[in-house]
Write a structure and sequence with these properties.
Elements (H helix, E strand, L loop, with lengths): L1 H5 L4 E2 L20 H6 L10 E2 L12 H8 L5 E5 L2 H14 L8 H6 L1 H5 L16 H4 L2 H11 L5 E5 H6 L1 H12 L16 E3 L2 H16 L8 H8 L1 E3 L7 H22 L9
Parallel strand pairs: 1-2, 3-4
Antiparallel strand pairs: 5-6
Helix pairs in contact: 8-13
């Protein structure tokens, strides 16, 4: 969605996706206000909507309040999906990025309690919170927290199922929410599809280099690490979650999905099948 919106003539989205400036309780991509605002230096009066996309804001306990302090009139776009599908996808992304050393999702899911208390964490990682797949994917609780701080008319929620079924319809809903006209877009190419690493160990090396760069205060670069990481990726469908684990996950997420159903007035019981 962020890529599609970036192509709209009346919307400004910076080229750098996921600056993660406002989630101060987690790893920030950008830490300085001047540096953050520089991302929007090319915005012009013709841009009626200006924003950015950082996926860890919703699960952050601090991001929404920080955003509201910076921009009290901010609007929020949230995309939700079946957590039983989201959790394996997140795990795969963490493996690709070099922050997860347990390649089997079932094994990583079972390690959550140990990792909560600092046990069995990757020696090269920096964020145990992001390995708590159950908590990160509990979108009902996160959306409920957002709506406790922001009025519903300032929050647009898109369900990924709906986007997959009719991308243009959902895109038009977002444009209406942002108060911009239809730009006539009819092509909705998929971005960030399922991938895997050719050499997972190599990505861990890249992760160590990135961590060294971060500790030295280097937040910008030529994108070389990202480019190398992309070369080390291939498109690959994820293995289905074993039935017994899926039943465990369904039990874990059932109450949270119920919260999401109430907030959106939707029936998501099919997610648990």
């Amino acid at each position: 969605m962020s890529v599609w919106l970036r192509g709209h003539p009346d919307i400004f989205m910076p080229a750098k996706k996921e600056p993660h400036f406002f989630n101060t309780d987690d790893r920030q991509g950008i830490t300085g206000l001047k540096q953050y605002e520089q991302l929007f230096s090319s915005a012009r009066p013709r841009h009626h909507a200006i924003g950015e996309a950082s996926v860890w804001y919703l699960s952050s306990a601090t991001a929404v309040d920080n955003i509201l302090r910076y921009q009290p009139d901010a609007r929020f776009m949230v995309m939700v999906r079946n957590p039983l599908e989201m959790a394996p996808a997140l795990h795969a992304q963490m493996v690709i990025s070099g922050h997860e050393n347990v390649r089997d999702f079932a094994a990583a899911w079972m390690l959550q309690e140990d990792r909560r208390y600092g046990r069995k964490l990757p020696s090269f990682g920096w964020s145990r919170r992001r390995l708590q797949y159950g908590e990160v994917c509990s979108l009902g609780a996160q959306l409920e927290r957002l709506l406790a701080r922001v009025s519903a008319e300032r929050v647009a929620v898109t369900v990924l199922d709906d986007l997959c079924a009719d991308a243009r319809k959902e895109y038009l809903c977002i444009l209406k929410f942002l108060g911009v006209a239809d730009d006539g877009r009819t092509g909705f190419p998929i971005h960030n599809d399922a991938r895997a690493s050719l050499l997972p160990g190599f990505n861990r090396v890249l992760n160590l280099l990135g961590e060294a760069k971060y500790q030295l205060g280097m937040r910008h670069g030529l994108g070389m690490l990202e480019s190398i990481e992309n070369i080390n990726q291939i498109r690959k469908q994820r293995k289905p979650v074993p039935p017994e684990l899926r039943r465990q996950m369904a039990s874990y997420f059932a109450a949270d999905i119920k919260v999401l159903e109430g907030l959106l007035d939707r029936d998501f019981r099919h997610w648990l099948v």
